[in-house]
């Protein structure tokens, strides 16, 4: 058998080499599978492993855990590069990166050492599982899981809807409210645990190939060794800014690809497209501005140890809002530039439009983000966590 080349995390990585390695997988492997992922709901497991070997998930991870140590800017660039071609794969890459972020920031060093290298390199795939908790902590919905302390760990019950990047043996994060307490725990789990069932009970207009399941917990024992934090107030505040900021990569990649579609349409329809309000150069300039701001915030966040101050948190939320709104605007412009050709099911512009709504709806959704922003401006509206 041929010898595999070393993974990027095993070599001296730079931003340039990191981007080049990911672009190669995207060009040679992912591009040909976009239609199957989007229209057939095919989960790109092998491509995810290849992206992991290229270092796509390792940049927010320290070299001691097989990370590149390049930081959140490089992580965002990875998501951006993948999302430019396929937002489904860009999203589950974000899921993977989010899980590395949980482990990079936990005080449970044994759990960190046992799992982080495999997840950072894509040898093991992983989801986030924090959609419901993030909404709960913003006073939007009730917590889905409850945890009862038992000997050696916790017993979990409840139904967690729509966790992505899942499959047999995949790891994902959860948060649960402790019974008879105001405290919460965060832990990592998988469907290997007795009493857990994965259910696929919904079909989506986009992002169908993302391994998205509902997770049923019936007396699931989670050992203390899998706990990320308990209580988890400080821990959630530590991970939330990176959780939000890395999502901006999806919006940047999508909007950038819409500019490319607009320019392609203009080769045939430029004489009439010039009458539309949003032009390719206008969108491109806004993407460049959003990209520069996001990268600067990522560099700032890399330097933070412990709690993130209110001003930086506010700017991160604003960057995520801008990514959602820019995605919607760019995808609509791409549709209008393409005209009737865009209205064919499965056309690139039609897919971008469906994907853009996901950027605006995925947790934290646009309305959720604006609620958070208001709470930072008016502290009496701030949630407990």
Task: Explain this structure.
The chain is α+β, with helices and mostly antiparallel strands. It folds into 3 domains: 8-124, Orthogonal Bundle (Butyryl-Coa Dehydrogenase, subunit A, domain 1), CATH 1.10.540.10; 131-232, Butyryl-CoA Dehydrogenase, subunit A, domain 2 (Beta Barrel); 234-381, Butyryl-CoA Dehydrogenase, subunit A, domain 3 (Up-down Bundle), CATH 1.20.140.10. The protein has helices at residues 15-30, 34-39, 45-53, 72-83, 87-105, 109-120, 131-137, 233-246, 248-273, 280-302, 310-338, 348-361, 366-377, and strands spanning 126-127, 145-150, 153-163, 171-178, 184-190, 196-199, 213-223, 227-229. Strands 1, 2, 3, 4, 5, 6, 7 and 8 form an 8-stranded mixed beta sheet that branches. Strand 2 and strand 3 form a beta hairpin. Helix 5 (87-105) packs antiparallel against helix 8 (233-246) and helix 9 runs parallel beside helix 11. The chain is globular. The model is unreliable at 1-5 and 381-385 (pLDDT under 50).
Brief overview, please?
This protein is of the alpha+beta class. Helix content is 52%, strand content 14%. It has 13 helices and eight strands.
Q: What is the CATH class designation of the largest domain?
A: Mainly Alpha
The CATH superfamily of the largest domain is identified as Butyryl-CoA Dehydrogenase, subunit A, domain 3
What gross morphology would you assign? globular
The structural domain count equals 3
Q: What does the radius of gyration come to?
A: 20 Å
Number of beta strands: 8
Helix/strand/pairing category:
alpha+beta
The chain-level mean pLDDT equals: 93
Task: Note the gap between the termini.
Answer: 52 Å
Strand content: 5-15%
């Amino acid at each position: 058998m041929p010898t595999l080349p070393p993974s990027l995390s095993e070599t001296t990585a730079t931003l340039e080499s990191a981007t080049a390695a990911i672009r190669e997988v995207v060009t040679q492997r992912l591009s040909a599978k976009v239609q199957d992922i989007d229209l057939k709901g095919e989960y790109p497991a092998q491509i995810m492993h290849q992206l992991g070997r290229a270092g796509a998930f390792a940049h927010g991870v320290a070299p001691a855990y097989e990370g590149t140590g390049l930081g959140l800017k490089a992580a965002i660039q990875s998501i951006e590069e993948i999302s430019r071609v396929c937002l489904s794969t860009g999203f589950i890459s974000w899921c993977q990166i989010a899980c590395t972020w949980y482990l990079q920031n936990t005080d449970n060093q044994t759990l960190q050492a046992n799992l982080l290298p495999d997840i950072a390199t894509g040898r093991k795939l992983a989801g986030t599982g924090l959609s419901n908790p993030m909404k709960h902590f913003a006073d939007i919905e009730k917590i889905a899981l409850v945890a009862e302390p038992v000997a050696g760990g916790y017993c979990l019950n409840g139904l967690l809807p729509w966790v992505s990047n899942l499959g047999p043996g995949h790891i994902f994060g959860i948060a649960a409210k402790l019974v008879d307490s105001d405290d919460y725990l965060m832990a990592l789990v998988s469907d290997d645990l007795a009493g857990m069932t994965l259910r696929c009970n919904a079909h989506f207009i986009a992002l169908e190939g993302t391994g998205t399941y509902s997770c049923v917990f019936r007396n699931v024992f989670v050992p203390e060794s899998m706990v990320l934090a308990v209580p988890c107030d400080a821990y959630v505040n530590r991970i939330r800014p990176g959780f939000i900021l890395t999502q901006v990569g999806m919006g940047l990649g999508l909007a950038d690809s819409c500019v490319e579609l607009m320019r392609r349409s203009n080769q045939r329809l430029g004489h009439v497209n010039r009458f539309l309000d949003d032009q390719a150069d206008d969108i491109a300039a806004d993407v460049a501005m959003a990209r520069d701001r996001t990268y600067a915030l990522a560099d700032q966040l890399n330097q933070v140890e412990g709690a993130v101050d209110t001003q930086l948190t506010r700017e991160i939320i604003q960057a995520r809002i801008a990514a959602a709104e820019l995605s919607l605007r760019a995808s609509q412009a791409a549709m209008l530039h393409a005209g009737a050709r865009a209205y064919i099911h499965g056309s690139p512009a039609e897919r971008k439009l469906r994907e853009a709504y996901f950027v605006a709806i995925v947790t934290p959704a646009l309305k959720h983000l604006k609620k958070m922003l208001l709470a930072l401006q008016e502290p009496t509206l701030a949630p407990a966590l």
